[in-house]
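Mods, move this if it's the wrong board.
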Amino acid sequence: MYSIMRRQARGQSSLELLITLSFGLIILLPIVVFAFIQISTASSTLSSTNAQAAASKLASVAAAVGTQGYPAKQLVLINVPTGVQNIYVGTQSNGVGHEIVFTVSTSAGLSSVIAYTPVNVSGYLDSITQTGSYLVNVSAQNSCPSNPIVSCVYIKPT
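Not the wrong board. Structure tokens:
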């Protein structure tokens, strides 16, 4: 008789522990999901902010080199953040234009981060979309490689 009551007490305490742990998991699960969503959003925002800093840095160096004219050139170190899909200089077909565009993959989809320059710019930076630091050559040209009729600042990786 004593052993039967003892087994029932063990079974009851096991069931109580299982119910308590289940309620704890039910409460913690939404908190964990919310935390993952917040981390993803913060990561996307950080990537976009770092892409804006890199684009602005390239634009300001291009403006400085462009105002000096040919044969001015400068090397600049940029940090490419995670999530960068493409980098366009000038136009999206890498023609002559006035913008530097970083296309960044975010939790909401693709986002374009744009920096404008007062000088004509052109170039090709598709080879540096991997995360990391890169040296970029910014040089003033009398005749732009993508459009020989126009002078521009040409931007390319070293």
